[in-house]
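Late entry, flavin mononucleotide complex.
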Amino acid sequence: MPRSVLAISGSLRQNSSNTGLVRMAMRLAPADLAITHWTRIGGLPFYNDDLEADPPAIVSEWRDAVSACDAVFVAAPEYNFGPTGVLKNAIDWVTRPLGQHALRGKTISIVSSAGGTGGAHMIEQLSGILALLGNTVISEPVVQIAKGAERISADGSTTDPEIETLIAQRLAALTR
Ligand SMILES: Cc1cc2nc3c(=O)[nH]c(=O)nc-3n(C[C@H](O)[C@H](O)[C@H](O)COP(=O)(O)O)c2cc1C
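Prediction complete; structure with ligand written out below:
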């Protein structure tokens, strides 16, 4: 059975290059990876513990989707040297209740298309957070694409074949 991978983009922008990286990954996925793009993280409410008594349907859907997958593929920009708010919020929802949370034990692959840094700070911070949560983070080969929006379209196409090579190599790493 193929390994199931849930993919999310950390950018809500319609022409997002990170959404492009998710679509590129789906196009390049080897037969032993089944990648599903969860497109609704922008619809999640801000995390609020008061909502835990009766979580909104979208929160349950997000938690169920994460629970059901073997691995999570994150393509996200860097905002002000860290992860975007929408991505951090989505992660917060799947880290409660602590110990039985949906993200528990998942392998997580992080790639970034950002501005001048290529997302290096974001990947470092997010990897640190996920390591503290006990997740295995795959960050090799390094996929930190500086000024990626100039070369990656939201439909998953790119003018730079090296980016496709990097994504294919990262997907191969996810199958191991
Ligand atoms: C609020 C904000 C802060 C940003 N901060 C950084 C940053 O710290 N480092 C960086 O490399 N790019 C930064 N950028 C640029 C984005 O990472 C870049 O535009 C990226 O392409 C956006 O991703 P997207 O194409 O998926 O929407 C920032 C952009 C915004 C809107």
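The longest strand covers residues 107-114. Will revisit in the morning.
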